[in-house]
Design a protein that fits this description.
- InterPro entries: Cobalamin_biosynth_CobD/CbiB (IPR004485).
- This protein has 321 residues and is mainly alpha-helical.
- The protein has one domain (2-320).
- The protein has 12 helices and 4 strands, in the order αααααααααααββββα.
- It has a two-stranded antiparallel ribbon.
- α1 crosses α5 (85-93) and α6 (99-125) runs antiparallel to α12 (290-320).
- The chain is globular, with a radius of gyration of 20 Å.
């Protein structure tokens, strides 16, 4: 299974998910999102009591997980029944991690700031973060892009690969569905506080190992970047990660902040509402610039290469055993 995860990471890093294919058939995340929307529309009745909506949210999560298990097992069985099945299975599995798209979206923020100024930067960063972008200055745009890189490296790359290594295509598909559910309905809003409770709690649970591994990868990657500090990365994790609103996001964000000597997280605005939050990292240089985005991308690329190497090594050890 780690061999599948290794091969999927290599393929996705090289080719990503082609735009022409997305335009023709969409993406597994869009299909999962359609199912979540159907469950939300049908089962999340605003006239129901809080506990009833919570119970229906639990049921919706179970249906989603069950559907992913059934579909992934059917796909895997069908593909492995043909000669080139293993190759096709790798191509399907390669749709689950998001190395290439994450890198390109964060790099697009840096390019927008460099070529189009602050307004272009705000539009670019709005594609990858949920906070209000209209009042962000350049430093805030850069901070938001780096935070998104750190958190989504864990959620969008390490976690699906890790669960694929543990549970094959089924493990990766279940993780991706649960993570998508959290992003769509796992909010403390009037509509989803009850119905999305199970999705949010389950996502917190299944992201625990990946967030910790991501922090270690960022710290290790700092060894290979001049001026970055593996020691400060781990110090920031031990000091600051527990103060993040999320039980998982603080680990990669604190590691990134400590490694680069910057401050991440802190207060931000969502939907016109100010969210108070602790900073991750001591922030030796709080005035972030496009250079910090580029160095953060370099750190993430090295960490990604380490992740691929780790999975390749695990696959080899398992094969030899």
């Amino acid at each position: 299974m780690f061999l599948l995860a290794f091969a999927a990471l290599v393929v996705e890093r090289i080719i990503g998910y082609p735009d022409w294919l997305f335009r023709r058939i969409g993406h597994p995340v869009t299909w999962i999102g359609w199912l979540i929307t159907q469950l939300d529309d049908r089962w999340n009745r605003e006239t129901a009591e809080f506990q009833e909506r919570r119970r229906m949210g639990v049921l919706a999560l179970l249906v989603l997980i069950g559907a992913m298990i059934a579909i992934s097992l059917l796909v895997e069985t069908a593909l492995l029944s043909v000669v080139i099945g293993p190759v096709l299975l790798v191509l399907v599995a390669a749709t689950l991690p998001a190395q290439k798209s994450l890198d390109s979206h964060v790099d697009a923020v840096a390019t927008a700031l460099e070529t189009g100024g602050i307004e272009a930067g705000r539009k670019a960063v709005a594609m990858i973060v949920g906070r209000d972008p209209e009042h962000l200055d350049e430093a805030a745009v850069c901070r938001a892009a780096i935070e998104s890189l750190a958190e989504n490296f864990s959620d969008g790359i390490v976690a699906p690969a890790l669960w694929m290594g543990v549970g094959g295509l089924m493990g990766g598909a279940v993780y991706k569905a649960a993570n998508t559910a959290d992003s769509m309905i796992g909010h403390r809003s009037p509509r989803h506080e009850a119905f999305g409770w199970a999705a949010a709690r389950f996502d917190d649970l299944i992201n625990l190992p990946a967030s910790r591994l991501t922090a270690l990868l960022f710290a290790a990657a700092a060894f290979f970047i001049e001026g970055a500090s593996p020691r400060e990365a781990m110090r920031a994790v031990l000091r600051d990660a527990k103060h993040h609103r999320s039980p998982n996001a603080g680990w990669p964000e604190a590691a990134m902040a400590g490694a680069l000597g910057i401050a991440l997280a802190g207060p931000r605005s969502y939907g016109g509402r100010i969210i108070e939050a602790r900073f991750m990292g001591e922030g030796g240089n709080p005035q972030l610039t496009v250079w910090h985005i580029h160095i953060a991308l370099k750190l993430a690329r090295i960490a990604d290469a380490m992740l691929i190497g780790l999975f390749g090594l695990l696959a080899l050890v398992i094969w030899l055993i």
